């Protein structure tokens, strides 16, 4: 058994340090955000400073680039602008300025990593335009060596631009692959991109000697030409076909879902229309960017083959089109167009986007379990092997209200009611846990364990498990689908399509043998909330083992009791499988955080570095009630049996330090469970397209998919 003394004492020191180094905290309603500055500018003043800074960057960068082309001679620039600058060149300068403004505007509104990456691509697009402009000045000013260098730089920048555009698109599609249930497409796109990067590196290295020693078209130059003119375009074309095929499938799925949901509900129709429109806009942005890239590549290939001159009008116009269309296309692709007319966000504040918060990585080092005794260890391992699949959970749920627990109402009965009136009666003849019954005594190792409180609706417990299997962050829609038979059928079909029907979870209500513990008494006189009859008491006669029932180990703990081995069981499973995770099924009233065993499991999973997945009913419930968690104290927590509370409290000598560490685990603005959930959910909401797309794909893949849109929330 793990003793929390060391953890509590260590956490006291850590929290003291954290409190001393914490930045200024500003309160807004019930939420607190950390600011890196002692003051914040007025939004209108901040916009002025941002615009002024962007203008200065544009002017200074443009002037510096022109000076490079003229080798620092302002006279050459003046001479060229006076005698050689034609309308094509002036259009090129204007398009370069448009690219610069677009890059600075997106950067000023880059409140997410994706937008920041999009602004980086637009900056590269702008630099490429400046390089080409500088090359033209160098060419007409007679600076041949500088011109050759800038031309080589222009080629490298353009290839880098192609690769960065691909990275930007792949990051945008990252949430699409799980929605389409096609992770291998993303893998193949990554492989193609890595091949392009390798060829780009090879070609660039081959260009370096040629840039140093002109006049000889050596073998290195041929390698560079082959890399840039043949292999990289081939990889790019294959990549582009895969992306377009993906976009076509997305639009096809949305069209089919719209046809299915037509006239069903206003909310579902609105979500589908909004998502399809977003897909069309982002697809349009991608098409525009790729088309302009291909046009520019074609113009330079013609120049290299001698068909046109590098400074020809066609090439200059192709460069102009590339600059403007890349700017428009990436603004559409990244979704930055939604910020038009809004005040720019302050990059120095972390309250604009949780994505910028520093999050410590989850520790993957597993603890070495203490062998308390061979019999203790054997019972622990046997308990750990009582997983239950999603399919078995659905089969059990279907029986409620039919041939088992006839009074069952999904929106009324709790897990405690179901355990007392369904699980215990169904397993009485065998005197075993439900998992042992359905698994026929064979061990079934779980992939995840579920932390939940028995006062939560049983429907919501099952909805949390299914939502996790479907990679959702909230379970409200799943809970609505579980309220009738048609919805259950639709869910089962969708989980089967997703390929997660055989996922195995460890749930105490099904894994623990209730007949060796609580079945023989109803100490709190609990009643069925529908019939108002007391919960039945089992007369199976199975021996009961509680915390202090002999035989005891050296710590005074009952060896045969299954309810005192949860932390050892978690440790065993975590050591056995590094990907073993904890699903935290949070009830609508957040009562889970006041239950002693739930908090013990949360803390133990965190101590062992397990991945912790928070499932809540909906975002509004969490935001509205999270202030209730600010005063968490382990001394105030409850359990069904007082002796469980006593056992947990006995392991915590420094309770104040433990409380502080517990609140940090849940509420910390950098690494807390709620912060991690908000980050994951905000990513899902930002990528609302992929969220709706997943349900659109699942609903169009099953017979009863219409239920999704009838229950859409």
TrEMBL record:
Keywords of this entry: Membrane, Transmembrane, Transmembrane helix
Record flagged with keyword Hydrolase: no
Sequence intervals crossing the membrane: 48-69, 89-108, 120-141, 147-168, 188-208, 220-245, 279-301
Annotated region (Disordered), positions in chain: 1-26
Compositionally biased intervals (Acidic residues): 9-23
Keyword Zinc-finger part of the UniProt annotation: no
Protein name: Mycosubtilin synthase subunit A
